[in-house]
Amino acid sequence: MIKPKIVAQPLIRVLVADDHELFRDGVRKLLEDAGNISIVGEAADGNECLRLVEKLKPDILLLDLRMPEKNGLGVLESLNFEIVSTHVIVVTGAEEDRDVLRAMRLGARGIVLKRSASELLVKSIRKVHLGEIWLDNRMTSEVVNAFKRSAEGGGRREKPLLSDREREIVQHVAQGFRNREIGQKLFISEQTVKNHLHNIFDKLGVSDRLELALYAIHHGLIDHS
């Protein structure tokens, strides 16, 4: 009998930035049992966080927005995502944190509530590491309300008519792929992808890729299973 080949999962290197030692201890213990996830560093303030990101180059940064010296938004503003390959997941204690939407616009790829089930934090790390956007099922109300306000004011159709190809492109955008990568996956040119996106933005009334990703999540166009 031929035994099935076991494919080893790549190691996901995580930096935790939170000023509460008790929270960092809890995350460390949780991720110790996650298999292919390893904490490579911990930071108690924003300046230390930036130094460790530059030094350790983690795959994932778990970032609290409320930290001394430089808060989470300051960290995001200081990171150059054209150079830094680290994906940021904001871990917040409040569902109505008004800074969450701004954090996403500054480059955060995920939001997890601190009171969420522990397995969701692990799941979010794996999904964001693959390039997807992750929003807790109990999305912060600020993100949801901001999205709804945009939907109400942007003239979107109740049921916009997207072609099958457009729906494929929306899913790939929400998963973090760039135009060139989407073109390669769908065997179409990068310019064709841009043309489709222009039509998609017009149909949905969204203004950028983040709004498109939020739309996809809000309307169940991507799978978080």
Q: How many beta-strand elements?
A: 6
Structural shape: globular
What's the tally of helices? 10
Structural class: alpha/beta
Task: Indicate the CATH topology of the largest domain.
Answer: Rossmann fold
Helix content: 40-55%
Unreliable stretches (pLDDT < 50, length at least 5) are 155-159
Radius of gyration over C-alpha positions, nearest whole angstrom? 18 Å
Strand content: 5-15%
Quickly name the level 1 CATH class of the largest domain.
Alpha Beta
Output the CATH homologous superfamily of the largest domain. Response regulator
Q: On the 0-100 scale, what is the average pLDDT? A: 83
Number of domains: 2
Order of helices and strands: EHEHEHEHEHEHHHHH
Which key phrases capture this entry?
single chain, 225 residues, alpha/beta, six-stranded parallel beta sheet, 47% helix, globular
